[in-house]
Write a structure and sequence with these properties.
This protein has 130 residues and is mainly alpha-helical. It has one domain (7-129). Helices cover 78% and strands 0% of the residues. The chain has helices spanning 7-45, 55-60, 66-98, 107-129. Helix 1 runs antiparallel to helix 3 (66-98) and helix 3 runs antiparallel to helix 4 (107-129). It is elongated.
Length: 130
């Protein structure tokens, strides 16, 4: 005997799964932002910057540990981009569910992995060279 799930219940499950996915991406973005803020705060707390700790001075990237703060800023920017992409994907999938279509793209996942790989590689280069 084959049991069928009512269509309304199936749609509810799909919407809830979409929301869980959004919350997972939000958590990832918040974690990236938190790590970025932590890195920047630690660098500032250790007094790494000179008296002129302006953003322009940071971008000058002189020698020393102030370069480390750039990774913090990069993580904050990366986390913010993840948040924006998460909401855009949520809305896109919500519309797809409503139209009973399913489209998937690996591009977003590849971009996130590429972004993290670039940040990781840049950090390794920084550690090796300093």
């Amino acid at each position: 005997m084959e049991s069928r799930i009512p269509e309304g219940e199936t749609l509810s499950r799909e919407y809830l799964a979409n929301e869980r996915t959004l919350l997972s991406w939000i958590r990832t973005g918040v974690n990236a932002i938190s790590v970025g803020i932590l890195l920047d705060t630690v660098v500032r707390a250790l007094g790494v910057f000179s008296q002129d700790s302006s953003f322009r001075n940071l971008l000058a990237l002189g020698s020393g540990p102030e370069k480390f703060a750039v990774f913090g800023i990069g993580m904050v920017v990366f986390g913010a981009l993840v948040e924006v992409v998460a909401v855009a994907r949520f809305v896109q999938y919500k519309r797809s569910i409503r139209r009973a279509e399913f489209t998937s793209s690996s591009l977003v996942y590849l971009l996130v992995a590429l972004g993290l790989s670039i940040l990781g590689a840049a950090y390794i280069v920084y550690v090796v060279l300093t």
